[in-house]
Amino acid sequence: MKPISDHLKEGLKVLFVGFNPSIRSAEVGHHYANPNNRFWKILFESGLTSRKYEAVEDFQLLEFGFGFTNIVERPTRAADEITKVEYKEGRERLKRKIEHFKPMVVCFVGKGVYQEYSGLKSSIPWGRQIKSVVPDTIDFVAPSSSGLVRMKVDEIVDIYKQLADLIAE
């Protein structure tokens, strides 16, 4: 399966970074397309969007300053199928994208995504990180929106509300 397209432009408010596309996302060519993924619901309920968007509308969020990419481009059924080499290459590619497009906030959709990107393995708090990997951006760590995550959706929404507050400042 081929990777899905990034949705990027300069001056984004938020660049959302996932692990990699799901098989469903690769099939339809849109981010967070698995019906069990709660991403679009979380964005709406946290106040980041004014309505619940569908995955097929992902490109429309560029108008609001929201972009999408992944640390690894290859679609898989699960993140544990990603190799160390893919993470290493993806980390460098992602860093170049962030340096080039200069988003205000980089939101890592999953603590594991941030761990792979930053190289940090110690306890990473949810929300804004003290130090960003790329200067002049803010690193923000949010829970994965996958239906496999055991956190209650209300708890996840509360963390994404912090992101909404941060970009409103």
TrEMBL record:
Residues annotated as domain Uracil-DNA glycosylase-like: 8-152
Swiss-Prot/TrEMBL GO biological process terms: base-excision repair, AP site formation
Gene Ontology molecular function, alphabetical: pyrimidine-specific mismatch base pair DNA N-glycosylase activity; uracil DNA N-glycosylase activity
Keyword DNA damage annotated: yes
InterPro entries found in the cross-reference section: MUG/TDG (IPR015637), Uracil-DNA_glycosylase-like (IPR005122), Uracil-DNA_glycosylase-like_sf (IPR036895)
Keywords: DNA damage, DNA repair, Hydrolase
A Pfam family matched in the record: UDG
Top-level taxonomic group: Bacteria
Protein name per the record: Mismatch-specific thymine-DNA glycosylate (Mug) family protein
